[in-house]
Amino acid sequence: MTLMIIGLLIFLGTHSLNIFAPAWRDRQVAQRGAIPFKIVYALISIAGLWLAIVGYGEMRTTAVPLWNPPVGLRHLVALLMLPSFILLVAAYVPANHLKARLGHPMLMAVKIWAFAHLLANGRLGDIIFFGAFLAWAVVLYIRLKKKDRALGTVYPAGRMPGTVATVIGGAILWFVFASYLHIYVAGVSAFGGM
Q: In the chain, what are the domain boundaries?
C-alpha cells in the first residue's frame, strides 16, 4: 500500500499546484518556459499515476477488508459511470452545454468515478485510493470555481451539436471501456462484478 500512497501523493500533488502553490508554478513556467515545464510536469504525473496503479494492484493481493458492499451496488457503479464518461468527454468537445454550465466537467467526472467506486469497494486501500481522488476533485473544483468567479470567467455557450456529440461519445466510451477495457485496467469485469 505504501507504493500506492507514494504514487497518489506524486500524481495528486502535481495536479494540486493550482491549489497550494500557484505562485511557485507560475515562477517555474516563467523561468523554464511553458513547454519544458509541461514536459517535466507530464513525466512526473505519469510516474505518479503508474506508481499509484501498480501499488493499487499490489494492495489488492493483501487487502484489509473494512466492509462487504452489497452486490447491488456494483450495478449502481456501472450506471453512475455513464454520466462520468459523458462529463469526461465534455471536457474535450467544444461548445457543449455541460462544459458551459459546469466549467470543469472533468473534475465532476472524477468525483462521480471516485464516489461510485467507494460505494462498491470496502477495502482499506480502496478507500484510500478512491477517497484521495474524491477529496482532491472536490477541493480543486471549489478552488477553480472561486478562481473563475474572481476572474469573471465565462465559458463559451453550449450548442446542441456539441452537446449531442458529447453525450453520444461519452456513452460509446463508457460501453467500450466497461465491456472490454475495465478488466485489463482493474482486473475485474465492470458488468460482471467489481
A: 1-62, 64-194
DSSP string, the chain: -HHHHHHHHHHHHHTTHHHH-HHHHHHHHHHH-HHHHHHHHHHHHHHHHHHHHHHHHHHHHT--B-----THHHHHHHHHHHHHHHHHHHTTSSS-HHHHHHS-HHHHHHHHHHHHHHHH--BHHHHHHHHHHHHHHHHHHHHHHHHHHHHT--PPPP-HHHHHHHHHHHHHHHHHIIIIIHHHHHSS-TTT--
Q: Global pTM?
A: 0.88
pLDDT digits (tens, 9 = 90+) for 116-128: 999 988 999 999 9
Residue type, 110: V
